[in-house]
Amino acid sequence: MQIDFSSAAPASGAAIALLVEKEGLARLATTLIDATALDLVKAAAQASRFDGEAAAVVETFIADGTGGVRRVLLLGTGAAGEAEYERAGGALTARLLTSGVRTVSVDFGSAGATPKAAARFAAAAAQRGWRHDIYRTKLPEKSKPTLATIVLHGAPEGTDAAWSKQKALTEGLELTRTLVAEPPNVIYPETFVAKVRAEVEGLGLEITVLGEAEMRELGMGSLLGVSQGSAKQAQLLALKWNGAGAGDPALALVGKGVTFDTGGISLKPGPGMEDMKWDMGGAGAVVGAMKAIAGRKAKANVIGVCGLVENMPDGDAIRPGDVLTSMSGQTIEVLNTDAEGRLVLCDVITWVQRTHRPKTIVDLATLTGAMIVSLGHEHAGCFANDDALADQLLAAGKASGDLLWRFPLSDAYNKLIDSPIADMKNVGPRGAGSITAAQFIQRFVEPGVKWAHLDIAGMVWADKPGATYDKGATGYGVRLLDRFVADNFEG
Fold it and tell me: CA-CA distance, 89 to 398, in Å (whole number)?
């Protein structure tokens, strides 16, 4: 979606959108249409019981003075905060994406929006327009997107600068959504790396890739154990951004990248298994966030690391009862090969600590079905060994719209994954499944390192549209991580 800025009047007949705060219809003013037409538009809004609620839309048509008609939309901005403008931007695109309209001008002249609010409006409008139609060869003409350009008319001074940051965020989101949406025969560990390389070229990110031979030499037996049943080669991908100058990264973002998860020998049920193409949503969020951070040239040192594997059930696959030796030297009794994400994350977390010494680690993973049972599709789960870090992440979630809910950690839960023959087992009892998974990962965090685990299982894919996304890949985590970095790691 192209976002433009203009102070010139739109062409005669061009579609326009007018912004209305809650209970602000009577105060609505604009220079884009005459007083008679504006009265007609207001009357249509009143007849539709429109009162400026956030994301509410009323659409009508007026004469354009040349014998044709002009489409006019009223967009509710509610209390007119940044979040309400964001919802309004998404609602505009949702209404017009396949309407036949190619360009719409949005009148900010009398809206009173701040530059950040206007930029978030534009970002939501662009993000809501993302689609993944490349494999649909018989899409009906009326279902094809037409909206290509949104013009912000009379936007407040400074909006273009605020938009440049939101544009970088939007491009990061689009990368994440594309990776999550692609089928598993297209995106697997090696092609994930190739796609990311191409997408971040020229942004100044330092890229490191380890193949199976390098990881075997490092002793990453836990990650490689998950991969050994697949014909696809595992990869470790690291993207490093030194926006604050030379030195170790203050923050490491770690993503689970299981590009397809059959469950391995502990095979998942067939119905719904196709959804497991998005079991790399944590890795997708990490690379999208790194693209956004580099794209806006954040003044922070951050590294994003992804463990990329495919979990398949062939004759070489790990079995329930096998014992794996992780890079940390700790041994793991595998009771369930479908609890594989934690086996990937533990070696990646060890690697980033030994090679880059971050003071803070945040990992993201579509880790447990138990998290969906707990929180549905409204929040991701947050676990942390540091209260201040947890508070920072929850605040970033509220500010960005990627919501989190904190869960407990304790010695009592930790004891549930003790093994009689190894240092630990990879699953605990039926209860508290998300918590025992987090306790497993915590065993690989070195003393003094602040760490948080985000279980995003219910958030990376949606069966219904949201404010900034359609059905399908949501891009969850990119906005959260970008805001977390901006608020806590940039001077």
Answer: 18
Q: Which of 389, 369, 365, 386 is nearest to 377 (CA)?
A: 369
> In the annotation, is 342 catalytic?
yes
Q: What does the pLDDT average to over 255-275?
A: 97
Task: Copy the structure tokens of residue 309.
Answer: 């594997």
Query: What is the spatial distance between Cα 57 and Cα 300, in angstroms, rounded to a whole number?
Result: 40
Other C-beta atoms lying within 10 Å of the C-beta of residue 322 = 16
Q: How confident is the model at residue 9 (pLDDT cuts 50, 70, 90)?
A: confident
- Average pLDDT estimate for 259-283: 97
pLDDT tens readout for residues 379-425: 999 999 999 999 999 999 999 999 999 999 999 999 999 999 999 99
Q: Evaluate whether 18 touches 57 at the Cβ level (below 8 Å).
A: no
Of 331, 298, 320, 484, whose CA–CA distance to 420 is shortest? 331
What are the beta bridge partners of residue 453? 363, 383
Q: Which of 22, 195, 268, 398 is catalytic?
A: 268
Q: Give strand pairing partners of 253.
A: 304, 362
Residue 268 annotated to the active site: yes
pLDDT of residue 110: 80
pTM value surpassing 0.90: yes
Indicate the pairing of strand 15-20 with strand 69-76.
Answer: parallel
Residue 45 tokens read as 């809004």
DSSP string for residues in 341-404: HHHHHHHHHHHHHHHH--SEEEEEE---HHHHHHHTTT-EEEEES-HHHHHHHHHHHHHHS--E
> Catalytic residue among 342, 450, 479, 483, which?
342
Cβ–Cβ < 8 Å for 173, 478: yes
Nearest C-alpha neighbor of 290 from the set 478, 476, 480, 124 = 478
Give per-residue pLDDT as tens, 29-87. Answer: 998 888 999 999 999 999 999 999 999 999 999 987 777 889 999 999 999 999 999 99
Q: Which two tokens stand for residue 184?
A: 């598993």
404-406 and 424-425 strand pairing: unpaired
Structure tokens at 76: 């509710």
